Amino acid sequence: MDKFSERKHWRAILKLCEEVKQSDRKPDISIYNTILRAYIPLGSIKHSFKILEDMKLANVNPNLTTYHYLLRTWSQAPTSEQDPYLREQIFEMIVNDGLQPDLKIYECYIDSLLAGEECERAFEIFDSLKSKNIYPQLELYIAMIRKAISINEPRIALNYLKSLEQNLFYAPTSLYNDVLRICAYEYYADGILYCWDKLKHRGLNLDEGVCIDILYFAGSHGKPDLVVQVIEYLMDVRRLKLEKFHFSPLTRAYVNAGDIKNAMESLNIMRQAGFQVGFFDTSSTGLYSLIRKDKRTIDNAYYCLEELHKEGKIVDVSALNVVIAACSNIGYKRNVDMIRALETYKAAEKLGVQPNVETFSSILLVCLSAKRKDLADQLWKEMLELKIVPSSLAYNRMIAIICTQDDYEEAFAYLEEMKAQNLLPPRSVYERIINKCVRHGDSRAILALEEAENFEYKFPRSFYQDLEDQGFDLGLAKEIIKNQKKNFNQQKISSNVNNSDVMNEFVDIIKSQ
Question: What is the CATH number of domain 1-136?
Fold first, then answer.
């Protein structure tokens, strides 16, 4: 029977058992345990309990091996037959028979708990072993760690990994990589930092997805050194072509570490890597929010630009732009500092920076907050003299500035110029113009609304209600526009009639009706 057992010839063992039953030979504990062992791969827990009953009828006392095999059989049984009550009954029998559960019993018991997805109970039993002077082996540690990983419990997985090390076991490198993956997925700081530090010397084996998780963790937790190490791993070991989103966590990490200077320098690193850098990058990484806290942080940011220049490093234009933009929205009171914005702009040449369209968009934002159309006109002229083509955002802000003034006629000219440049005016431009016209009883509000609707912009019902409350007959106006549309189109393309003539004719038609 032992030979059949060693060779795992379970069917032959069962046949031999039948022969023993039919003979006059009385089975002993060894025979009974061998029979129980034969039932393990079959998962036949019901037959195992029948053998246990036979043992007791034959006055053969079960030992720990008996219960060990019973627990293993329970774990191998079909899910439909894994009755937790039977498992607990087995464990109670051990205590009732005056036996002291050993490591094998606990291993089987914990395995059965894990098989039944009773993870919390399994962790509780495992944690209690030390108080019983029972010390788990490497295999059980690994099983517990992998179960913790499978149910997204990085804290438990890390604690068991550290406990494994304290018990002088050599954990496989793959286990550290697996724990690092779940810690990165769950943004568990202690686990990421611990496992990364271990794997630097043992060998990292991470896919790009895990590395991206670690990058964004490092960025949000102010760990620029970790960001650099991950980028180096992706470039040198994984041989990947990096994208912009691989580098942006570096700026965020410096921002969250309060290091404005290196955050600004990292913008140029991105540009040198071949990526476009703009206000979105300084805003999304938190640099803009860090600088605009108060006037002191704005001054500190400017001094950082000077330090970078003195050190012979390239000052990225986006670093200059974010300092200018911050002057439009200082602190929780959202104060404006036109002087600081202009001084920063004027320092561009001294810092070796060539202003771009975003530079002017940023300073126009300051002009908008300060309602300084006079300065905006001058800056717009300088932009054109530098042969910088205005962007949609620049037009948007210039029109917004004009709409802060009593005289807003130029808003229509800039709107037409914007369209002539094949730039689609955003809905906000039309909203500003329409609201300005409504406040002044200007019938061109209807024309602007019609044009916005032609671009398929949607406005809330309250918007139309406000127009009607101000005395605008939307139905009549739209009918007039429909009837006169062909005439307006002809007038727009005619070299003899300018845009203001078209507007005046439209207003005259509205008034005459």
Answer: 1.25.40.10
